[in-house]
């Protein structure tokens, strides 16, 4: 009997529906349940072939427990090692290298020094920074947000440099990023499961939370939807996420990836709506069963994205490597493998999210 577990926090509708659906369709050799932890010993398994992680980003104990489980062979969705290393500013840089449009974004150091540091800790940081160059790059209005944050926390819409300096002074030790505003005509939020299953949902982030999936006008074209679909697959396969959402703001027909680091995305029926909820429950249940059937005892069963695999295999991120040089006149040329392609908080941004 192989067990599939789900690790979750306050949410209820999705975990309950996920377990129920897995048990309805998995067959007699696979069973799903809520993960139960009463002790964690080093290098000892939890007893699950697969664990769907919905909460460890906010609970360090769970993150450490999942890494230990992965070490013993559990297929954790999503890979806890990559999730610990990933952040939004890096994601934007990767997207550019992959040819996916993103807003112009600059990394901003924290306003306050981190604990246990002094001015000498920043010997390599210019004072002042080239603020005029940064502001020229992103333009105004712009959005300032944590470089690795989420959930609409500490997101500010800024109208000029005075506004920037005022809001930045309130961010304390949080490393921020400043991002070009994309004034959009259309907006889409897309589930991606298993790096291959995609659900494109029209979305209106300017609506109240319970109405954001209520959009009266349909997509402008099938070509746009296909482009979005392809970008979703590309980003998730390179990042290596098994369960993620990607958001696109469409300006002048071009979809800009706005937010694509959501490895525990909202899946509650009351917010995403019944149709989207049914899709994510069905698809995640089928994918977890796939992973359980593929599970091999005692080996690494995690998903590692193409970004990591190209680095390990010493091949280009995208494109084709140059042929290896001939060792002798009679030797055959070996083609290198190809990588696939303090104060009251300021008013939160209401048009784009990160």
Search tags:
354 residues; alpha/beta; four-stranded parallel sheet; 12 strands; 31% helix; disordered C terminus
Radius of gyration: 22 Å
Secondary structure: number of strands: 12
Q: Given the C-alpha coordinates, what overall shape results?
A: globular
User: Which spans of ≥5 residues are poorly predicted at pLDDT below 50?
Assistant: 321-354
Report the sheet-strand fraction. Answer: 15-25%
String of helices and strands: EHEEHEHHEHEEHEEEHEEHHH
The averaged pLDDT comes out at 90
Main sheet specs: 4 strands, parallel
- Taking strands numbered 1, 2, ... along the chain, how are they ordered across the largest sheet? 2-1-3-4
Structural class: alpha/beta
The number of helical runs is 10
Fraction of helical residues: 25-40%
How would you describe this protein?
The protein has 354 residues and is of the alpha/beta class. It is 31% helix and 18% strand. The chain contains ten helices and twelve strands. The chain has helices at residues 13-25, 60-71, 80-85, 88-98, 131-138, 161-168, 222-239, 269-272, 274-294, 306-312, and strands at residues 2-7, 30-34, 50-53, 75-77, 105-108, 142-146, 156-158, 176-180, 186-193, 197-202, 243-251, 254-259. It has a four-stranded parallel beta sheet, sandwiched between helices. The chain is globular. The model is unreliable at 321-354 (pLDDT under 50).
């Amino acid at each position: 009997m192989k067990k599939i577990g789900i690790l979750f926090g306050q949410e209820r509708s999705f975990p309950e529906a996920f377990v129920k659906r897995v048990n309805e369709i998995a067959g007699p050799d696979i069973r799903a349940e809520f993960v139960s932890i009463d002790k964690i010993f080093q290098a000892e398994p939890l007893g699950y072939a697969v664990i769907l992680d919905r909460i460890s980003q906010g609970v360090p104990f769970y993150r450490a427990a999942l890494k230990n489980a992965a070490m013993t062979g559990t297929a954790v969705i999503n890979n806890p090692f990559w999730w610990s290393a990933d952040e939004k500013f890096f994601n934007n840089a990767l997207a550019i290298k992959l040819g996916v449009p993103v807003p112009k974004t600059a990394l901003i150091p924290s306003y306050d020094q981190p604990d246990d540091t002094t001015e000498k800790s920043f010997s390599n940081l210019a004072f002042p920074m080239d603020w005029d160059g940064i502001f020229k790059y992103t333009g105004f209005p712009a959005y300032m947000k944590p470089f690795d944050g989420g959930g609409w926390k500490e997101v500010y819409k800024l109208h000029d440099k005075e506004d920037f300096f005022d809001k930045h002074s309130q961010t304390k030790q949080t490393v921020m990023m400043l991002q070009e505003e994309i004034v959009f005509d259309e907006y889409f939020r897309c589930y991606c499961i298993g790096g291959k299953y995609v659900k494109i949902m029209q979305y209106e982030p300017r609506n109240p939370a319970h109405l954001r999936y209520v959009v009266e006008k349909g997509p402008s074209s099938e070509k746009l939807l296909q482009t979005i679909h392809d970008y979703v697959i590309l980003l998730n396969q390179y990042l290596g996420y098994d369960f993620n959402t990607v958001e696109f703001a469409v300006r002048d027909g071009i979809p800009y990836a706005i937010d694509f680091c959501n490895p525990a995305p909202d899946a509650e029926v009351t917010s995403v709506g019944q149709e989207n909820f049914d899709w994510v429950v069905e698809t995640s249940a089928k994918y977890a069963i796939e992973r359980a059937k593929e599970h091999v005892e005692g080996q690494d069963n995690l998903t590692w994205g193409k970004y990591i695999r190209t680095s390990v295999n010493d091949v280009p991120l995208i494109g084709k490597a140059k042929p290896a040089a001939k060792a002798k006149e009679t030797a055959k040329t070996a083609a290198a493998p190809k990588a696939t392609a303090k104060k009251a908080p300021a008013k939160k941004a209401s048009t784009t999210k990160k």
